[in-house]
């Protein structure tokens, strides 16, 4: 990677997406990595202008990049499901982003709604399966709009798909000090899928004697996220449960403005995509109120994925220092000012 520029596709998207991505790129540039960026106009405004969501030629072009940075897509003016299914989910499925990596980490100085929790209590990584489960779009509808309507939505779980994400999770756990992996599911009710997940974790665990494993039903896990977050280190879970518990994770770790994520193709057969967990926030768009920190932390994950671990650590450190200072008067800073301050710390 050092010998050539990183080729980065940027999808600012809608609402605050463009605002936070600008700051993320500012930090990326400050880190000194040679990056060549190409911006793609995708999202609600393109949909309204041309009716297109993700044309095949754009999809093919995106495939050629080293990574993708996405702001957020979505607008109340677009019918629900169009941009989510045909843009975001399509990218995740087409590029085989089978690991959706979402750290849940309380930085020092950040306020959490969990009064007594300290940073050492909230430091986990959620690995959400990204290409299967209830999100594959399997199912259908009969007699729509009548009193006899039938709607089905099926969860797809393949031995191959479960095993590859479980293996990734064990490797991740092995690389962390606590070496602990928790499976979160609902095996007592979702017995077919749950059985596959549980057996897979048990079988793969034999190859990782140094990693301790345990299991939580998703409802109990939700409770423990709030009452005893220190129980968790690395979590592996399916697409739907992972979607839900990571919003809870974002809330306990200081809010949606700080939550970063990576849609990762660990086999590197297509580019991975990094994005803040939050959406386009139409309520604050265009006002300079958006917190760019989640995007900047997503940039750190991007650098890490590209093997630029020292650069990634510098960005995370700059964010950590900025967060400590926020205890006094951060609310008065604009999106740009936060980006500038973190950039200044990266430059040193
Ligand atoms: P949202 O995450 O956009 O906003 C929820 C609340 O959090 C709002 O009050 C917003 O002002 C606030 N917020 C979000 N990001 C913030 C930031 N960086 N700094 C400060 N405050 C922030 O979720 P919402 O309102 O449910 O969805 C808005 C649109 O975004 C919808 O069209 C939705 O489909 C889309 N969306 C897109 C996602 C993506 O592109 N990955 C993810 C989630 C939602
Ligand atoms: Mg979500």
Automatic annotation (TrEMBL):
Organism lineage: Bacteria, Bacillati, Actinomycetota, Actinomycetes, Streptosporangiales
EC numbers, comma separated: 1.1.1.85
Source superkingdom: Bacteria
The protein's required cofactors: Mg(2+); Mn(2+)
Domain Isopropylmalate dehydrogenase-like: 7-342
InterPro entries according to UniProt: ICDH/IPMDH, IsoCit/isopropylmalate_DH_CS, IsoPropMal-DH-like_dom
Alphabetized UniProt keyword annotations: Manganese, Metal-binding, NAD, Oxidoreductase
Keyword Transit peptide tagged: no
Protein name per Swiss-Prot or TrEMBL: 3-isopropylmalate dehydrogenase
């Amino acid at each position: 990677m050092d010998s050539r520029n990183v080729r980065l596709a940027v999808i600012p998207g809608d609402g605050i997406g463009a605002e936070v991505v600008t700051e993320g790129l500012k930090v990326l540039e400050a880190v000194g990595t040679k990056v060549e960026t190409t911006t793609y106009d995708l999202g609600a405004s393109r949909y309204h202008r041309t009716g297109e969501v993700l044309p095949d030629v754009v999809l093919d072009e995106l495939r050629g990049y080293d990574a993708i940075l996405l702001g957020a897509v979505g607008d109340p003016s677009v019918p629900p499901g169009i941009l989510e299914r045909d843009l975001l989910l399509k990218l995740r499925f087409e590029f085989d982003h089978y690991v959706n990596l979402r750290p849940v980490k309380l930085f020092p100085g950040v306020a959490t709604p969990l009064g007594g929790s300290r940073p050492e209590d909230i430091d986990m990584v959620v690995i959400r399966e990204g290409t299967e489960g209830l999100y594959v779009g399997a199912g259908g509808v009969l007699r729509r709009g009548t009193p006899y309507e039938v709607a089905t939505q099926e969860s797809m779980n393949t031995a191959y798909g479960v095993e590859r994400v479980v293996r990734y999770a064990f490797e991740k756990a092995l690389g962390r000090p606590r070496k602990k992996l928790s499976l979160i599911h609902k095996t007592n009710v979702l017995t077919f899928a749950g059985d596959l997940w549980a057996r897979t974790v048990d079988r793969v665990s034999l190859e990782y004697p140094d990693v301790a494993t345990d299991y939580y039903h998703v409802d109990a896990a939700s409770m423990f996220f709030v009452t005893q977050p220190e129980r968790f280190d690395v979590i592996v879970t399916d697409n739907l449960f992972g979607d839900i518990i990571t919003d809870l994770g974002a809330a306990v770790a200081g809010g949606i403005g700080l939550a970063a994520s990576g849609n990762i193709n660990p086999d590197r057969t297509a580019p991975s995509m990094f994005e803040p967990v939050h959406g386009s926030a139409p309520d604050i768009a265009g006002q300079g109120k958006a917190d760019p920190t989640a995007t900047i932390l997503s940039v750190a994950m991007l650098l890490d994925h590209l093997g630029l671990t020292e650069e990634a650590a510098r960005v995370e450190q700059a964010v950590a220092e900025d967060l400590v200072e926020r205890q006094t008067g951060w609310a008065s800073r604009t999106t740009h000012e936060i980006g500038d301050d973190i950039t200044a710390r990266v430059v040193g």
